Fold this sequence. Notes:
This protein is of the alpha+beta class. The protein has two domains: 2-77, 3-Layer(aba) Sandwich (Glutaredoxin); 87-199, Up-down Bundle (Glutathione S-transferase Yfyf (Class Pi), Chain A, domain 2), CATH 1.20.1050.10. Helices cover 54% and strands 8% of the residues. It has helices at residues 11-22, 42-47, 66-77, 87-116, 125-146, 161-172, 182-192, 195-200, and strands at residues 2-5, 27-30, 55-58, 61-64. Strands 2-1-3-4 form a four-stranded mixed sheet, with helices on one face. Strand 1 (2-5), helix 1 and strand 2 form a beta-alpha-beta unit. Helix 1 packs parallel to helix 3 and helix 5 (125-146) packs across helix 7. The longest helix is centred in the middle third of the chain and has 30 residues, at 87-116.
Amino acid sequence: MVTVWGRKNSLNVQKAIWALDEAGVPFDRIDAGLEFGQLDTESYGRLNPNRRIPTLIDGDTVVWESNAVVRYVAAKWSEGDLWPTDLAERAAADMWMDWMQTTVVGSLIPVFFGLVRTPPDQRDMGAIAEKAIECGHVFQILDAALARRDYIAGSRFTMGDIPVGAATWRYLNLHIERPELLHIADWMDRLEKRPAFEKHIMLPLT
């Protein structure tokens, strides 16, 4: 049985368990991080020297870094489906997965933490608003790409939709001003019809 360490309200954990569910892989999940602790234990440090979540355990194989987990799941259990066998399609999925980590996170995380995990009397609304504008510009890049395709890598759902879809759902459910993102809205409608997306991603933001 595959085991995933990490709390279910973590964006990075959500990516991992959404991928597992899409691939039809049974798994156990162990709460860890924030109020659940465990990351500072010696045993967890042996699994993941960064002491972050998620960490996936598959027999003797240990995988950390959420996008690496998504790729591992797709390659092992969903070749030709989540894991594209066409190199151009896989490159597109990889490109947008990395874009999410390198371009989206820097503007989205400050807004999320500022509005969701910071008490109202401690929020820097000016800084949050500035990052929200930056987020809007970033997601307009994605919106323009989705004008030409139904999913991240092309005409079908792949591993690329998982990290980007999870982050985008968070962005769309924050109480901030956003530009019009019609193509993202259409893509979200398609993702929301997937049972695994509804189960693991469409949760209250906490």
